[in-house]
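User: PmbA protein, Halomonas korlensis:
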Amino acid sequence: MTQAFDAAIQQRLLESRAESALALARRLGADACEVGASVDQGIGISVREGDVETVELSRDQGIAVTVYVGARKGSASSSDAGEASIRAVVEKAMAIACHTGEDPASGLADAELMAQALPDLDVHHPWALTTDRGIELALACEAAGRGVAGIRSSDGASLSSGEGVRVYANSHGFLGSQRGSRHSLSCMLIAENETGMQRDYDYTTARHPGDLQSPEVVGASAAKRTLRRLGGRRPATGRFPVLFDPTQASGLVGHLMGAVAGGALYRQASFLCDRLGDPLFPDWFSLGERPMEIGGMASSPFDNDGVQTRDNVFIDQGRLASYMLSAYSARRLGMQSTGNAGGARNLRIDAPLTAPEVLLERMGRGVLVTELMGQGVNGVTGDYSRGAAGFWVENGEIQYPVEEFTIAGNLESMFRGLMGVGSDTDTRGSIHTGSWLIDEMTVAGG
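Assistant: Predicted structure for PmbA protein:
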């Protein structure tokens, strides 16, 4: 990095400011208070057609304070974490609390739930990256893709590297902090032949810069993905099996987690309200989280309420085993926090894994989906309808690319109709999954 960033110093500074905010809130009459503070620094570089387009150095910080006066709550935040700003934020939060209605579910998470184990989860690996070296890597990535026959031009390659510190403290006496880093490299290309032009991309991301794929691998993969889309046509309309590739299957996991999130449940905005214990998937499928996984992309020993995170099983042998709850949503539902304020962390599937080519054979005739468009998912009913692109499959083999079609179904029936999970696991994000083969959906093409 071209700017000095000492994570240890930043951590001590944020911890001190969080404690100052807590002390001030007590003096001003708050019954309880919680503080979140963070600072992040990074570099972002983008190149296009062999030229540097942007070089951005960023440094962001912020502090957010929530106070509780009886059953009243007030929150305020600032992008300036200086001493003067802290006083202004606490005073603003107190003023807001005086004008809000009482909410018996508000308040800190129970003191006995506060995290006690705060191990180093090995998620902080800063990259001593100079601007010149970053430009060199981005250009090499783009050049690797542009050099492949059939690639017409580039939509650019981007490299980013950042690190930061976050701190959470509350008036139970809990103070937790964590340093983290994230690095990524991506490339988007345009291919052309007599049928027209197509665009696609690929990327790599990791906590440790040494775990990134090489620029040459990313560029070549982006070119391969782009070229395979040439000659796209519309598929037939009908009811067919659909195979979601790993990048799209992770979205199905995301829809599931949105439906079991406490906020959706207490608002009665989920098709999984009051469904604990019900079968949702085949009995060979389980899904849970591992928030204490060493080096995980979402690892953390405490959630956004300061509650100790733990391994949770959300789907156990096909049945809905747990909701995903923060302290507030748990109180609204008459339950207890699952340590999920801020969401699930490192979702992992426990199921027999099948080679992708075997899933294609099992499919026979249908659609392999590699891209989804639009927001056509209804969390209340589970109805699902998205624009899609991918490949037509006949006799278990990919025949040609398809585009400009929609797939539709219902999430509950899709989950129940899961026929297999692929061994082609995508491990780049916090959701690790391979392809998902769904037994039948409506495909609307030409």
